[in-house]
Write a structure and sequence with these properties.
two-stranded antiparallel ribbon; alpha+beta; two-stranded parallel sheet; 4 strands; about 100 residues
Length: about 100
Amino acid sequence: MRLADYARSSGVTYKTAWRWWKAGALKGYQLPSGTIILNVDEQNSLTKTEVACIDARVSSLESQEHLERQANPLKEYAIARGYTIQSVAKKVGNGLNDSIWRQ
């Protein structure tokens, strides 16, 4: 799979996928033309022990409807990468006062 296709299907920019490839997080090879080809089987071989904890926060009750808009793309990204979602925390309140929590 080409790196550009992988980035599109994973929901990240090409530049982010390229950085991951340069760092060695993605396995593949580069053709003489410069095209990067990823080994799809190795990318999809994540074990189920890899988990994600989603954390969405807004600073006020007026912004509470934005919680879902924050959490949904994070959940979709984690699922696309093969992670098991362990928890989704949705919090309302600023960093100075953590007395208002939504779970």
